[in-house]
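Lay summary

Proteins are chains of building blocks that fold into shapes. Our project writes down both the chain and a compact code for its shape. Here are two examples, one after the other.
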Amino acid sequence: MAQVKRSSARNRIALDRVTIILLVVFVIAAIVAGFFAFRFFSSLVKSWTITSLDGAPVDNGQSAPGTISTTSPGGFNPSSAPTAEPWDGNSRVTILLMGLDFRDWESGEVPRTDTMMLLTVDPLSRTAGMLSIPRDMWVNIPGYDYSKINNAYRFGELDKVPGGGPGLAMQTVEEFLGVPIQYYVQVDFDAFVKIIDEVGGVKVDVPQEITLEAVGSLEEVTLQPGRVTLPGNLALSYARIREGAGDDFGRAARQQQVIMGVRDRILDFNQLPTLIAKAPAIYNELSSGIHTNLTLDQIIQLAWLMPQIDKQNIKSAVIGTDAVEFGKSPDGLDILRPIPDKVRLVRDEVFTTGGPVGPAAVAEDPVELMKAEAATVSLQNGTATAGLASKTTELLKPDGLNIVEETNADGIYDVTTIFVYGAKPYTVRYLIQKMGLENARVVNRYDPSVGYDIAVALGNDWAAKNP
């Protein structure tokens, strides 16, 4: 009997260690990170030592006694990665989760991103959030002009820019949404499938009938409305399918469903005995299919934090149909043009713990919203018409627009263009309405160091309206 008690006590010690290991898996696979480290006691599993995954060094005062292959057998290894930033454990941390389009690397091409999702955690308020970004979003990719957002990774890899594909993707999303992004995680689909299989599948609530083609086979499976448990290949199909289920918008919502399902599976302590037994296999799948710039210490900090965040305090949102305009690219591709102020509101739903970052939209009057936002504006004359910036100031300043500079633009502009360096959507909307501009004339170039929030390059079209 005493022996049983000793075994039970020993198991409790091991359980604590294993629990944190499994939480690390959750952070990697769901709130996502790219390191996994653990050591088991006694007869539960074999002893493990701290090892690192590709993308960041282990800095724990010891040398790692073993190494694990970081070449993803069916995936894509980025050429380089952004340097890991320090984290104090208290500040909000934001991670860009990327899944690559396997059709690209299967055909030997440098891949685009198939999935982009921002995952954010606020340790002080014990809140977290997920924001999905449709891959057809038409945005400025720094150094490459406008393109679909899913091309950022490919451009960074093709041209070997600093930080590679992950770095350029992070910079693009950061500029688009106006939020700092510290880390990235790239997950290969093969690893995704195998991880879900190792944890026994994932439970999701299917809102309507949907037919899936299981990844890796030609078999079609029709899911009926209700709660179902999906194996890895069907979970991947469910998360990726676009046809007949809301396209990218419904797809993004399903991806978030799957992530929350992984979270629930790992934090379900009834599953712990099974997960403990499978921990080595889970680890091997993670080590071969995930790349990140998170450090070991950071991932362990996140792992300890995750069980302290209640499910109702994890917000989720998709940049959906009410925040975009459907359009065509110059070469005829279907694209989504973001509506800046509406994108900002969606972003604030996820990233704000005590109300919106900007002024509350309690009034529909665009002038009042603009004044409350207090954006700084530079008026720049992009024409040969002398005094155009001053004349424009006389028109706009009585409304309360905070014009801090009148100067010449960097060249001649046929069409007036608004350059946005800070997240000030209400001022942008005011300028569009006041000056009669199209949303397509708004260029997002997030950069807080510029010295003003918005620059308006006045074009010949504006000069013709204001002789």
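And here is the second example, written the same way.
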Amino acid sequence: MSEQTLASVTSIGDLEAPPAPDAGALLQRTALGDEAAFAALYDTLSPSVFGMAKRVIRNPARAEEVTQEVFLQVWQTAPRFDPSKGSAKSWVLTLAHRRAVDAVRHDQSATNRDLAYDWSPGIDHDEVVETVTVRLEHEQVKKCLSGLTELQREAITLAYYQGYTYAEVAQALDANPATVKTRMRDGLIRLRDCLGVES
């Protein structure tokens, strides 16, 4: 390679892009309210902030929102930046990571809420069908209760519809507690069979 070619290669190296602006200096100027410095800081760091947010969130549109939120936070909190604790870029990326994680948590929480309430758009609650169903079930239970012996029917009614304990049912019916338990068990088996409920 000739010296002249080597000289031309060296001069091409001189044509490289100027070094990136110092993010620390831009952030300090931003803290003083310098909008031009903030714009330059945005141009310098937004690709890194967006990349960080996109890796955490995995949704480009949501990552763009987080990037905007981060730079709003940078504008509002720039005076808090302390260069003795780290670089401006690491400070901004820490804000971005925290904001992205918060976004994931928020989105997951919203998803969990939707699943917990099993919200289904377009499916209306039909009160008429529900009322008719409850009435039919009630009539079926009454019919099946009428097929029990008097002691079974009274014991089950007191225990399940009026909240009595076995001892209270026995006292109300003037019967032995063991007899009441046996009659209730037999009555419940007959009710189950009558209602078509599988055990």
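What can we say about the second shape? The longest helix spans residues 88-117.
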